[in-house]
Here is the input.
Amino acid sequence: MSDRPEVTEEQIEQAVALLRAGKLVAFPTETVYGLGADASNTSAIRAVFKAKQRPADHPLILHLADTAALKHWANIVPREAWLLAEVFWPGPLTLVLPRATHVASELTGGQSTIALRVPSNPIALRLLNAFNGAIAAPSANRFGRLSPTTAAHVHEELGDAVEMVLDGGQCAIGIESTIVTFRGNQAVILRPGAVTAEQIEDTLHSELAASIQSSPRVSGSLESHYAPRTPLKVLNEADMESFLRRESAKRPVAVLSQRGRPRATRAALWQVAPQSPAEYARHLYALLRRMDDAGCQLIVVESVPELPQWVAIQDRLMRAAGGIQSADAATGT
Ligand code: TXA
Ligand code: MG
Here is the structure.
């Protein structure tokens, strides 16, 4: 399989026909793979929850072909939302807005708001344009697990539960979109991502509101989310060596670090993570999956720099470790 496989027009047409028939189609986005269903078909939406084993009160993200569709799905679109959409769509930003009255409550988990995004991945856009409607798509993983960043990951996660997987190779960004909502006219980040707090503040010429405490309705802020099966711990460089000396004697430990393995450091597996935040994000879930499959009893990740461009990665590492402190991690402050 090449890194950028071709998706043919026939495959797009087949995917559209399956979606119209109420079936599920996984497709690449620039962030992670989505598990797509026709947003106007409630039984297809229910099938998404079943395939993911996701509780019904966790809302999905609606994927749109263009910014103009925003007003069809949202009841109120603040000026700030239009501004962000103009600047960051198509791209890794999700806007949570009051929903239009016709929106199926299955989509929103019964909430009064709806999450909307126009992805930039060319295959996703071809699919959305050919489908000529909205595609509801959560990440194409089972509930609580790591998001897939390749078509092979989708097959591992969902097997036969998905009718078709459009293979777009590896996702360019590799972690889920930034989710933004509004308190009045003030933007709030619900989940950090590739679009940073600083970029949003620069676009709106105003400061972000402090993040809302994680609500159980937002599955992305549950502790168990984005987690490998193997227990995971985040450690500072200074604590690594003594920790590994102690723990590696007891059980096989896998390490993810931005440095090469120091001499005499014991670990069953040592993976070197990329230096730049963009590359780190792109490879993070695949690296965690590989470490999860290595048969170790503990994954240790060396902490990443405390800098704004690392906030989304810090957030995912904390979630994977099961210890998300929602407010700080999510605002990037
Ligand atoms: O990058 C992404 O956003 C990927 C790709 C496929 O687009 N999708 C994704 O979807 O990560 P999912 O379902 O795995 O995560 C969506 C997050 C969840 O945490 C969900 O609870 C939250 O969005 N969400 C959806 N609707 C919401 C709403 N009305 N209010 C608050 N949070 C919402
Ligand atoms: Mg997800």
Summary: Residues 65 and 128 are 5 Å apart (CA to CA). Confidence is low (pLDDT under 50) at residues 213-223, 325-333. The radius of gyration is 20 Å. Residues 138-139, 147 surround magnesium ion (ligand 2) (CB under 6 Å).
